[in-house]
Amino acid sequence: MTHPVDPQDSTNVGIGDRLRAERQRLGYAQADFGAAVGVSKTTQFNYEAGDRSPDARYLRRAAALGMDLLLVITGRKDDSGAERYVRVPALPERPARGLAAANEDAAAYDTRQDVSGLCFGKDWLASRQLEVGKLTVVTVRGSAMEGTLSDGDQVLIDQQDITPRSGYAYALRQGEELLVRYCQMLPGRVLRVTSANPAFAAYDVDLSAAPDLEVIGRVVASVHEW
Question: Which first-to-last residue range defines the signal peptide (predicted)?
Fold first, then answer.
C-alpha cells in the first residue's frame, strides 16, 4: 500500500527527482517503466513528482530492473550497481498482421515498444539458474491469459527450454502471431495449447505437420514476480 506524502517535503521531492533520473538512465518512458513494475502511468508520475511514496513491492521490482535504490533513497550513488545488473533484450520486432492485427484478443505479443529489453539483477537471475544470453523479454497483448497474465504484462522467457511440459506457459510463434499459452506435449508430437481464459478454447497441433509453429521458450517470470 502506498501513502500520500506532503508535496512540500523536500526529502520526498528529492526522491521523486532521483527516481525520474534513474528511470531515464535506464531508458524507459514514464508509462513503460510503470508498466514494467506493475503500476499505472499516473502512479509513476505521482512518485516522480514527490506526491506519493513508492512502496516496498515497487522498489523491489524497480531494483530488479536495474534501478540504483541507494541513489534514489539517499542520494548516494551505488558505484557497484553497473556490475550487478544486465540488460535482457526484447524479442526482435515482427509486426502482427491478419488476425492478430484485427483482433487484440488473439493474445499476440507486440514488442515494438520494448526493443531495448529490461535490466535484471545478475544475482536474481543466477538464483533462478537463468543464463543471460538465452533470455528474452516480451510484452503481453490480449486477454487469452487473463487471470494469470494481463494485457501489458511483461514476461521473461528462457529460450533454452523449448520442450513443452505440463503446467508451464510458453511463448509460441504461430505464423504471424506471438502467443503465450499453457502447453502439454501429447504422444505423436501433438502439442495441446490451452489458455488461462476459458473464453479461448484449447486446441491440438500436430508439430510434424505444422512447420509454421515454433516454441520460442518457457515463461520463467513475469512482472508479478520481479
Answer: none
